[in-house]
Amino acid sequence: MPSARDLKRALDRVRSAIPAQRKLEGDRRNIRLGLERITRAIQKEQNWTGVHVGGTNGKGSICTLLSYMFRQSGVSHGVFTSPSLFGARNGITINGMYPNKRLYEAEMKNVQSRFHRAASGWTFETGEDPGELTPFELETAVAFRVFNVLHVKYGIVEVGMGGASDATNAMHEKGITIISKIGLDHQEYLGNTIEEIAGVKAGIMRPSVPCIIDHTNSVEVLRVLTEHARSIGTPYYLTDDPDVADFSSPIDTEKFQLEDYEKQNLLCALLAFKKLFPNMEMDLNELLSKRPYPPGRKDLIHVRDLTDGLRTAPIFVDGAHNMLGVQALSTYINNQMRNGDEPVTWIMGLSASKTKPFASLIETLVRPQDRFAFVEYQPLPNEPSAVPAALGREIAESVVSSSEQIYDGDPSVDAAIQWASEKAGNEGPIVITGSLYLIRELYNTEGVYTRRKFKTMRPGRSQLWYYTQLAQTRELTEEEAREFKQARRHWRLNPIRSSALVSDGERQEPPRI
């Protein structure tokens, strides 16, 4: 195994060798924490109750667990998580379905128009130009508006970064907040110590609104969170609360083997659900049988087409990109996928950061007998650059037994999958991990398939009106005509308007063009 000095030297070379232009691009990322802009972009009326989920690790998993619980119990809800792996619109689900594309685009225009009107007044009052909304502020405001338009009762919202000054904290009404496991991440924005980061994340708490806290957090983190809760009058509950045992059905441990971090995520979601709905029961075995994991977490992809039939067995995918996530992934792989001293083939890509411990992340996952490919993703505007593949390989050389175990070809994820499939064969374990930006690129690679996708909502009343007006000005495109037809069909099949179900009054007909 490499010495700590060897790893430190490799890490120093990684940071020093990142081209100056890449560092400059990172500094130009449009991340502006604060609520001044977002509050001018969202509606004053919030017709849904917020379930706000913060922390460092497990946020997305807790949101997904809650969504499955709400669906299992028949509770109307929307979910907003980030970053979306299939496009901005797909960061939102409504009762388990993506919103219609046209609806999303229309509400985005409404948000932008509202903000531009407010920005003019801001400039007049202060003499300052507020600039444009950041991409995350825009996505957040659109999600809140979609929740309003579609009349959901609850909005399950994942914090983007931090807490107090995160755009999602602009929601007006919260029913409960959740803070998952907190670790060191995004120090350049949130603070250099675990206590500073915990203080920022505690900012999602509200007076008199219950807060669920993962009790496995460090003593320092728990002290910061509980002191803040008491100071503002927030009732808080730790996940080792004995009340959990009163309503959690026994889990079939032979069928569902949960890691410790998965148990904590489940407890966070379960305790929050119970506080919101004390009279509802929850069958955990039924819940877990539906594999309630978000895309990019404990997922399986199929690459038969990408590899021309070379690999028919699925490949494991998990977007672990910080130390807490990597430690949890390492435990899972060692317990569930490793077979003695046989090698695991890793494909990894990370985003550039001044504080991310690249060498420690690789060392935690990779054993001397393993194979390793370090790849790069292509960042979109306002996203961090990828760590150069050559520098990731240099770190790995101090971990594995031989340089022949390291991939040195084209740094794209599809090329690395081809190499990994050749080396591991059809049955050898292959794991793809790292930045969620890499996972997004993976999911959008031709020949890669995942079953963990949601359906899209049918066009509704707003789209029916939109296409009616549009068709009077020009000929509809093929896609628009298809959605217009779906909207008219949806109108006819609505039980409220169906002639078969309406007992009195006249049946309304959708417009014809």
TrEMBL record:
Coiled coil: none
Single Gene Ontology MF annotation: tetrahydrofolylpolyglutamate synthase activity
Alphabetical UniProt keywords: ATP-binding, Ligase, Magnesium, Metal-binding, Nucleotide-binding
Keyword Zinc-finger included in the entry's annotation: no
GO cellular component terms attached to this protein's record: cytosol; mitochondrion
Domain of life: Eukaryota
InterPro entries referenced in this protein's UniProt entry, alphabetically: Folylpolyglutamate_synth (IPR001645), Mur-like_cat_sf (IPR036565), Mur_ligase_C_dom_sf (IPR036615)
Family to which this protein belongs: Belongs to the folylpolyglutamate synthase family.
Record's protein name: Uncharacterized protein
Organism of this sequence: Cordyceps confragosa (Lecanicillium lecanii)
Record lineage: Eukaryota, Fungi, Dikarya, Ascomycota, Pezizomycotina
